[in-house]
Structure formats: structure tokens, C-alpha cells
Amino acid sequence: MLLHGDVFTVDPQRPRAQAVAVRGDRIVAVGSDAEIQKLAGAGTKEIDLRGRLAIPGFIEGHGHYTGLGESKLILDLTKAKTWDDIVAQVADAAQKTTPGRLIEGRGWHQEKWARPPQPNVEGVPLHASLDRVSPSNPVVLEHASGHAAFVNAQALKLAGVTRETPDPPGGEIVKDASGEPTGLLKETAQGLVRAGIANQPRNPPAEDEARFRKVVELAGADALSKGVTTFHDAGASFATIDGYKKLADEGKLPLRLYVMVRFESDASLEANLDRHRLIGYGHGMLTVRAIKEQIDGALGSHGAWLLAPYADLPSSTGLVLKPMPDFEKTARIAIRHGFQVNTHAIGDRANREVLDVYQRIFRDFPGKRDLRWRIEHAQHVEPADVLRFKKLRVIASMQGMHIVSDAPWVPKRLGEERARRTSYPWRSMIDAGAVVTNGTDTPVEDVDPIPSFHGAVSRKSKDGTVFVPEQRVSREEALRAYTLDNAYAAFEEKEKGSLSVGKLADIVVLSKNILAIPEDDIPSARVDLTILGGQVRATRPP
């Protein structure tokens, strides 16, 4: 039992308490210290909260689970202040890597560098700068958003990409004034290099399985240390899901996963969805009942699909990664098999088009109810379309940390007026009655929920600027988005998301009360204790 705390339950029937009693993996009582202490037995373990805040375990509403684990095994480019910093990292890796082996990194963002590299195209350097330090190793450096990659000449050679190579549908091979590839590949163009590298000699199956297990372990350790007890994995192939299931059978999934099927053809979905459907498999550790689709790219890489051209790139309105008729066909497969559809849409045009498709499908399947289809990100939405989220019962799966990260450069992409009107309309969504959830999109951002919670509440960037302040939400709303609303978005609100009798005992204890301390102090709060199914799974070192 947990005693002597400030328990915020996210349960409207009993919002506040002092203590929680747990038996097995379930909550059996919530109340005052006196009420809970009466339930103690000879073998009862007591945890003294010492007045600290206890809340439901955080639910990561949209992240990339294996991507998080993989990010621990490659170059971390997120802290680079200049392009030269990244070149130095690659140079160091090249000296330690066997010639011919791939060097990978992730996390660069041209808008976050202290100065643009010279020369550059669209603020991004030319691959010659990498060629000098890694002439024998292919290099693939993924953008922080995941929607672009920068590669060297060796990687382009393996992919067979030259000045004559046409842009693939939904992608762009960025070229300089003379027509030569710069090394920047947007959206689906990244697949050209990935395919070229995949043709290289394969690792033995045992080595691949060992790496997969390590990736799952690393992702779980990071997430649990930051209070995440359930993770909505925004895209896994059937092969990856089979790997998760095997680990669940062995009792080796570190935390609960809600997985969206991705990277499969329509034929594969038709053939395999039913046998991969899992609800609370492995004692509540694994659920598979959704598919993930992607319509456009990211705003940072000029890939978000907009209703009007970019302010800083008037020749473009973004990229369409999957034609809408193809998307609608896939979504209809999902509804026939009883699967939720969760669709990546960032630009205002992408959001409108997805809502249009959803509306047509809902009309054609009137007997299908409580679908809880989602739009992932919903970052830029015209006010007229905000009301449609409520009307169609579409969930806005958003990420508060993106507000903070993107605020300094969104007006550059959209112009001041359009940025204010459409960007991250959290308050408008909630006021309209739509369900809004929170997450981090890790490894795009750190999986830590506290900065993302703070981003939704404050909308304050690092320089102190508050981005579209009228769209801020209350702390209670932000916490609900990270707990009970995320549970609802996965059809799991009866099992988790609040500290209520009968629910899973997934509980987080914080070092500071993020519901009461000064707003600017929220990011300094830490997770002291993570409890998953009644078992302490992570403890912050003193």
C-alpha cells in the first residue's frame, strides 16, 4: 500500500486521496490513510509517499517503440549546436567502424543550429562534408522528425541515386543548382537508400534477434524510468508484432504496449489482421487492434500537406505520402476487420482530407459504432475543421512537446497569421468537445512525459516566448490527456488511466507536485517511482 501522499486519481468519483491499496496487479482501495491502513495484513508492504504526488502511470500516446530503443544504439545528434558538431561525430565513428559498415545517427534539425552550414540548400549542407570524414562507410543521418535523412556519397552509390534518378511518389531527392543530389532525402526518398543498404550482406538471424531484444529492453528501461507504463507504438510490422508476442509469452515485455500495424500492403492486411488481433495478451501486456497510416510529412522538412503554399517555400504545399484513394481503400479494409485507424496528418490540408475520408467511411458503415479513429499529430488544423473532430468522434492524438520544439520556426514556415490560426489547437479542440491525447513522438522527442505535459500547459519555448497562448490547457486537462484520455484512445479506460478500484495498479510517484508548483518549475519534476501492475519497476537514484 502507498500511504501519506497526495493522490490525484483522475477519477471524478474520488479525485483526491491520501493512500492506495494494491493486491496482486489491481487497485483494491483508494482513500485516507486511516481507511487504507485498516486493510494491512502481516505481509503487507508499505511505501511512504512522504507527501509526494501519486498519479496514474503515464501512457505514451504516440511514440515509436523500437525507434526509441534503436536510438540508444546509434549516434545521438540531438545536442549538436552546429553541422560541424555532427561531422565530428561521424568522423569519430568512421575511425572506429569497419570500412563498408553503415554509420547511423538521428536527431539533427537545421532550425536548431547556431548558424546554417556553408554551402547549403534549404539550410542543409552538401554531402561532400561527410564524404571527407567517411569515404568508405555509408552514412545515414535521420532528421529529428523522421521525415528526412541526410546521407553521404557512399550511401547514394549503394542506392544507385544519381542526378538522373527521379523523385519517388511522396518524396524528394533534393538537388543543388547544378542538378546533383545534395544528400538530403525527403519522406519516401529515404527508402531508396534504405533499400540499397538492405541489399548488403545480412546479419545472421540470431544476431538480429539479439539486437531486437536489446532494442526492446533499452526502450522499456528509458520509458519506465520516466513514468511511462503503457506505450502506444505508432507503427510496427507483423514481424515486429510477432517478436513482441514472443517476448510477452516469456514475460519479458518491459511495459504494456498498444501496437498499431504499419508497413504492410493491403493484401497482407487482409490476410493477417484477424490472426494478429490481440487484446490484453500476456496478462495485459500486449494489445494489437489498430493500423497506422501516413498521409503527409513534417512541417520542418516542408513535407506537411498544406492548403496554401509554405511562406518560406512558395513553390510547395508539401508532400502527399499516400494518395487519398489508396488510403481510403486501406481504411475500409481496417473497418471490415474491426481495426481502429490512426492516421498521421500534420498539415491543414492533410487533416481536412483525412476527416473527409473518415466521414465517408462512417456514413457507409452505420452499424459500426464506438470506432475511436484517430488523427495522429493534428498539428495544423483550420478552425472549421476543429468542430469536425467532435462531430465525427475523431480523437486528436497530439504531442505537447512539439509545441515547445517547433514554436521558434513555425511562423517562418506558415507566416504569423496562419501559424496563430491553425497551430496545435488544443484549447479549441477541448472546448469543442473533442478528445485530445498527449505523447512525445519519441524518439523525435525525449519520451519523458513531464516536458510534454508542460508544453501543453505553458506553450512556452526555451526563449520564454509563449506560442499562441490562447490555446493553453489546464494542468488537470493535460494530466487527463496523458492518462485517462490515452486509455480511452486505446479502448482501455476500464483497465487503466485512473487510480480507481479494480483497475491495473500502474502508478507513478513524482518528486514535485506538477499540479501545484509554479508553472516554470514543472520541467524540474522527476519520476521517483514507477509501479507497473503492483510491482516497482523503476526507482530514481538518490
Description:
This protein is of the alpha/beta class. Helices cover 34% and strands 21% of the residues. It is built from 20 helices and 25 strands. The strands form 5 sheets. Strands 8-15-16-18-19-20-21-22 form an 8-stranded parallel beta sheet. Strand 4 (19-23) and strand 5 (26-31) form a beta hairpin. The two termini are 22 Å apart. The mean pLDDT is 96.
Concise account of the structure shown:
Helix content is 34%, strand content 21%. The chain is built from 20 helices and 25 strands.
What labels describe this entry?
25 strands; 6-stranded mixed beta sheet; alpha/beta; single chain; 542 residues
Secondary structure elements and pairings:
Elements: E1 2-3, E2 6-8, E3 16-17, E4 19-23, E5 26-31, H1 33-37, E6 47-48, E7 53-56, E8 58-63, H2 65-71, E9 75-76, H3 83-96, E10 103-108, H4 128-131, E11 139-143, E12 148-151, H5 153-159, E13 171-175, E14 181-187, H6 190-198, H7 205-225, E15 228-236, H8 238-249, E16 256-261, H9 266-276, E17 278-280, H10 281-284, E18 286-294, H11 324-336, E19 340-345, H12 348-364, E20 374-377, H13 383-392, E21 395-397, H14 400-406, H15 410-414, H16 416-422, H17 426-431, E22 436-437, H18 449-458, H19 475-482, H20 484-488, E23 507-510, E24 527-532, E25 535-539
Parallel strand pairs: 1-6, 2-7, 8-15, 9-10, 10-11, 15-16, 16-18, 18-19, 19-20, 20-21, 21-22
Antiparallel strand pairs: 2-3, 4-5, 7-23, 11-12, 12-14, 13-14, 23-24, 24-25
Helix pairs in contact: 2-7, 5-6, 9-11, 11-12, 12-13, 14-18, 18-19
Question: Helix- and strand-based class?
Answer: alpha/beta
Into which percent range does the helicity of residues fall?
Answer: 25-40%
Give the spatial strand order of the biggest sheet: 8-15-16-18-19-20-21-22
What is the mean predicted local confidence, pLDDT?
A: 96
Strand content: 15-25%
Radius of gyration: 23 Å
Distance between the termini: 22 Å
User: What is the molecular shape?
Assistant: globular
Characterize the main sheet. 8 strands, parallel
Give me the number of helical elements: 20
How many beta strands in the DSSP annotation?
Answer: 25
Contiguous uncertain segments of 5+ residues: none
